[in-house]
């Protein structure tokens, strides 16, 4: 009976397990209706990130976003807007991952119709103006559609990879 009491006492007094950094995976802070805006050197808007909810975790330095919205503005080009169900920022925020039901739209500009992208993952590097994905994407412009296994886009280049297939409708 004494041995059983000693063993039970040892079980009760053991501390709960924590991760290797010494922190539990609990939110460090939560922000509702979050908006962050960045400007270029001339003071013009460069990019804006919004989310219904932002949660930061100290143990792995990640930030999750609910219903994120991102707008990238490049001088002389049409703005690009990205929406998704979820977002993830790792570290200091140089890269934002948009996840689940991603929809990106390059708005109409200079007589060109809107160009839309649909997929499950899109990575944005806001300060560099880069959007990329290593997952399948579908581009649509009017009645034309292009499917690709991945993509990379910056201010001047759009590169499609992985079994690119498309249907171009020249009648519209």
Describe the protein in words.
With 172 residues, the protein is mainly beta. It is 7% helix and 53% strand. It contains one helix and 14 strands. A six-stranded antiparallel barrel has the order 2-3-6-7-5-4. Strand 4 and strand 5 (80-83) form a beta hairpin. The termini are far apart. The relative contact order is 0.11.
Topology as a string of helices (H) and strands (E): HEEEEEEEEEEEEEE
Task: Please give the share of residues in helix.
Answer: under 10%
Largest sheet: 6 strands, antiparallel, barrel
> Which residue ranges are poorly predicted, with pLDDT under 50 across at least 5 consecutive positions?
none
Percentage of residues in DSSP E strands: over 45%
**What integer is the average pLDDT?**
85
Q: With helices defined by DSSP (H or I, 4 residues minimum), what is the helix count?
A: 1
The secondary structure category is: mainly beta
- The strand line-up of the biggest sheet is 2-3-6-7-5-4
Rg, Cα atoms, Å: 23 Å
Task: State the shape.
Answer: elongated
Termini, distance in Å? Answer: 87 Å
Notable features of this structure?
mainly beta, 172 residues, single chain, 1 helix
Describe how the helices and strands are arranged.
Elements: H1 2-13, E1 27-39, E2 45-57, E3 62-66, E4 69-72, E5 80-83, E6 86-90, E7 96-106, E8 115-125, E9 130-133, E10 137-141, E11 144-148, E12 150-153, E13 158-161, E14 165-167
Antiparallel strand pairs: 1-2, 2-3, 2-4, 3-6, 4-5, 5-7, 6-7, 7-8, 8-9, 8-10, 9-12, 10-11, 11-14, 12-13
């Amino acid at each position: 009976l004494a041995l059983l009491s000693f063993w039970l006492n040892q079980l009760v007094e053991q501390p709960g397990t924590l991760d290797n950094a010494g922190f539990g995976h609990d939110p460090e802070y939560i922000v509702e209706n979050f908006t962050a805006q960045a400007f270029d050197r001339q003071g013009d808007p460069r990019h804006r990130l919004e989310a219904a909810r932002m949660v930061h975790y100290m143990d792995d330095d990640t930030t999750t976003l609910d219903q994120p919205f991102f707008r990238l503005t490049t001088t002389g080009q049409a703005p690009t807007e990205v929406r998704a169900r979820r977002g993830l920022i790792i570290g200091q925020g140089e890269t934002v991952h948009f996840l689940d039901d991603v929809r990106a739209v390059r708005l109409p500009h200079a007589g060109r119709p809107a160009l839309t992208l649909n997929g499950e993952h899109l990575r944005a590097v806001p300060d560099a103006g880069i959007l990329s994905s290593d997952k399948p994407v579908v581009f649509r412009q009017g009645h034309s559609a292009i499917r690709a296994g991945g993509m990379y886009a910056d201010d001047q280049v759009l590169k499609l990879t992985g079994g690119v297939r498309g249907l171009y409708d020249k009648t519209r």
